[in-house]
Amino acid sequence: MNTLSLAPKVSPADVERIFNTHIQDVLLVAYLANTIGTQIDLSNRLASANFGATTPTPAAAATRTNTTTTSATPAAGGKY
Question: What's the pTM?
């Protein structure tokens, strides 16, 4: 039995069409993977960014309030 006679008969145009479709699929998957990776990286950078707004820790907040408890009014009977 001839082994080559068992191979399906496919026209060159069909082979080219199937190949181009496969290449487009591979390129789309690569593009999406790259885009998702970029989005994850951007999300991580934004999550770790400090935009000047700090949230003090409880210890730092307690220290800050203890050092800034002076008032603008004089103490009982005292003068400025």
Answer: 0.50
